[in-house]
Amino acid sequence: MSRPYRGRTPHERSAERRGRLVDAGIDLVGTGGVNAMTMRAVCRCAGLSQKFFYESFTDTDDLLHEVYRTTFERARSVVDEAVAGAPDGSPRRVGVDAAAQLVAEDVRVCRILFVEPIADRRLREYVRESILDLISPGLRRPTRRARVPVGTRMQYATLFGSIISLFIEWSEGNFGDDRSAFVDHVTAVLETAAPGLSGDQARPADTAST
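Below the sequence we write its predicted structure tokens.
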């Protein structure tokens, strides 16, 4: 049985190293993009050898998934905390406001969650599954398995593209600094889409083809 080293168990030391690698990946992708996150760069940034990289991840694609997931979960915790204290009737706007403040304050969040997925297909799959759940949990992505009409899927794609574009422009300062006006606009876009995309979009298998 392995003994604790400096008061920490092997599992705790491994978890700490994994956390350092993820944080290094977040810094690299969040400031330089996906191409900046090479194994050598990650290990150098984390102060660890490749031996310890392979202790936690199979390859950089595996780490990239964790970089996105961790960034998303951290962002969601901020949004959820804000929504939990929202007045009745305004949780969607409060959630959008929290997300807008977050991406304005930390450029890494916007780059990882909104910018890089445009060019990287791996991240695009992650963001399709999660981003509207972050901004507006009641809006679900219509999947192929749900066998929903093509028109509904196009509606989702239109909304998805609009939200991505709006947040990128906002984070880059192209809409000025009136966060309230930005939040009002994004909330209105979501409210317009909500009737068609809320709840279960599933249809019988013979209703529509995929």
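The chain has two domains: 1-57, 68-210.
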